[in-house]
């Protein structure tokens, strides 16, 4: 990354510099022109830990909300254009699950396709307020790590960056190894909660 060239481009936007980065971060969620990891590191690289974290979080929240709102507005036919049939079948239980905590856990786990999840969750039962809280808080830990990584590169603290990268690799590796098991647990959790809900309705009836 050529920090000076990117900074010069953003500075050329004048007062809109921060808005330019926020838009870039939001677009990578909606259309994924570049990897989200790259923009997260870029935020810390250009703006430092605090401002970089704030700008990235704002951009990610806006992008996540756009995906969610598009799914809410245009429904399943629209989402099918962006999400494969296989992926939809894999996460179809989210369309019926009303528990916000399960969705929050999915956002916390590295390796889950969070941008796609925003579309899928938009077809479900969560309100916009619930979704915004869950997606913002759920993405926050990963955003902190990426911003710190960019900050370390900015100050040429390569040892700290290497340690941070090593920790991130271990976390992602473990997540990928246990990803299928976690998904099975979530499905079982969903089925169990649905059964309890039906039982309660029967008792009331």
Description:
- The protein is mostly helical and 205 residues long.
- It has one domain.
- 79% of the residues lie in helices and 0% in strands.
- It is built from 10 helices and no strands.
- Helix 2 packs antiparallel against helix 3 and helix 3 packs across helix 8.
- The longest helix is centred in the N-terminal third of the chain and has 31 residues.
- The model has no long low-confidence stretch (mean pLDDT 80).
Please describe the structure with a list of short key phrases separated by commas or semicolons:
205 residues, mainly alpha, 10 helices
Summarize the structure.
With 205 residues, the chain is mostly helical. It has 10 helices and no strands.
**SSE pattern, N- to C-terminal:** HHHHHHHHHH
Report helical residue fraction: over 70%
Strand percentage lies at under 5%
What is the number of independent domains?
A: 1
Mean pLDDT: 80
> How many alpha or pi helices?
10
By secondary-structure content and strand pairing, the structural class works out as mainly alpha
Shape: globular
Radius of gyration: 19 Å
Distance between the termini: 63 Å
Largest sheet: none
| Strand elements, count | 0
Low-confidence stretches: none
Write the layout of secondary structure elements.
Layout: H1 3-11, H2 17-30, H3 36-47, H4 49-79, H5 85-90, H6 100-108, H7 114-121, H8 128-154, H9 158-177, H10 179-204
